[in-house]
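> Could you send the Early nodulin-like protein 1 prediction when you get a chance?

Sure thing. Input:
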Amino acid sequence: MADLKALIPCLALLLFVSMISFSEAREFEVGGKKTSWELPSSPDEFNKWAQRNRFQIGDSIVLTYDAKSDSVLEVTENNYRTCNISNPIKSYTDGITKITLNKSGPFFFISGAEGHCQKGQKLEIQVLSAKHRSLGHSPAPSPAETHHHHLAPAPAPANGGSGLRVGLMSGAAVVGILALV
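Output:
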C-alpha cells in the first residue's frame, strides 16, 4: 500500500507533463528548409507548405534569405494580393527573420525584392484562435475547409488522437490508483 502512495505523485506529474507538452509553441522553418525565403519552384509553393501545417498563437516562423538582395514584408491582404511592396506593416531585412505569430487570423508576407512576389515569393498563414486549439499540431485543413479568414473546426489529429488517449489513460490510471488507496 505504501508503494502505491509513492506512485501517486509520479503519475500526477506524468499526467501534467503529457498535457503541457501538447501546448508548447513551435518554430517553423518556412518551406521546411534552410535558405527558405527565395524564388519558389512553383508559384504556390509557400502556401502549399503553410496549408500542410497548423499554426497556433505563440508559434513562430523563420525565414532565411540573402539580406543583400531580399527582405520580408508583412503586408495587408490587399497588398498581398496585388504584390504591393510600397506600404508594408513591417519590414524585415536581417537575413534570418523570426516572426512570432501573436494573434489568431491571417498573416500575409511578401518578398521585398522587385518582381519576386509576382513570381510566387509570398506566404499567407492562418493562425488558429485559442478556441480552435487541439491537442498536438495536426495538419492544417485544406483550402476547401477554410472560408477566407475563418477556419473550420479542426479535423481529427493525423495521429488518430493518440495524444488524447495518452492524456485520458494517464488520468484514468491516477484515478484508478487513488481508488485503490
